[in-house]
Amino acid sequence: MTRILLLGGTTEAGLLARAIAEAGLPGIYSYAGRTEAPLDQPIHMRVGGFGGVEGLCAYLKAEAISHVIDATHPFAAQMSGNAVAACTATGTPLLALERAPWVAGEGDRWSHVADIPAAVAALSGPPRRVFLAIGRQHLDPFASQPQHRYLLRLVDAPTGPLTLPDAEVIVARGPFDVAGDTALLRQHQTEVIVAKNAGGKGAVAKIAAARALGLPVLMIDRPRLPKRQVVTSVKAAMDWLHHTARLGV
Ligand code: 3Y8
Ligand code: NAP
Fold first, then answer.
1. Separation of alpha carbons 133 and 152, rounded Å
2. What does pTM read for this prediction?
């Protein structure tokens, strides 16, 4: 009996959820519960952590999950690591649906940094107008570079005071478009953009806008993830589901 757990929270996960619904396959779309009102999905949704690897193992057994597809964001490293551990421990087939990283092209002025601390260190120096487009969870470390004027884009309005002394907040949920992000960068006279190498289409607008405006980008490379089977398209993920189910795995 096929019963899919889709670890979601990305554009691609939403597209896969639609394909699963259209195929009439029983699936559960899982959100961490990071945002106040996550988008509805065409399959059953669950919101909240599982309780680490142990909690996920228990969930897979209790819900008789036959397949797990990890379509989380490339920076959701802990969730992806837990999925590999839990699926190995329970013998549940696991597939990752990943999007390719962005690659610098003609006109891009990128500096690659390995992680958030490296991005913070790269901001040493005189005050600048910085578009810190990495969400809410990792803002605090940038307080060690208080000299800058930060522009922040968050999915939900901040619940408490920000640790950055000079910051302006925009509340917006992507996906974003190039015209909108170009106007935003112009309006705020942005001088440098800090971005995660998310890949995909939902967050790429600011990168295209930076190229158009000749602005430098501090590009944070993705965290390393444990080895697992990976596909890069919804079609390949659906083929895997049908194939694996047919083998009765
Ligand atoms: C809760 C679900 C869909 C998915 C849409 C994608 C695109 C728009 C662009 C910028 C960058 C950022 C951030 C971003 C984008 C998509 C996708 C994507 C980046 C929602 C969502 C959830 C989250 C969590 C949120 C993080 C934050 C990161 C904002 C829903 C809207 C910066 C990543 O306040 C918080 O705690 C937010 C946390 C994780 C990164 C961070 O560390 O703060 N995403 N984003 C998911 C859950 O609970 O499981 O609310 O509907 C999903 C999307 N956000 O279905 O159309 O596919 O990537 N998300 C980054 O890329 O750097 C914004 O502003 O340019
Ligand atoms: P993370 O740091 O890898 O995960 C931390 C913990 O959050 C996990 O151990 C798990 O808790 C819980 N969790 C994460 N994703 C979950 C999911 N889809 N369903 C149920 N529990 C989940 O994760 P994150 O980077 O905060 O990302 C959280 C969510 O936001 C994911 O759905 C991700 O796809 C989405 N998202 C993240 C980013 C980003 O920049 N990180 C960008 C866009 C979307 P337990 O250990 O208790 O199970």
1. 6
2. 0.97
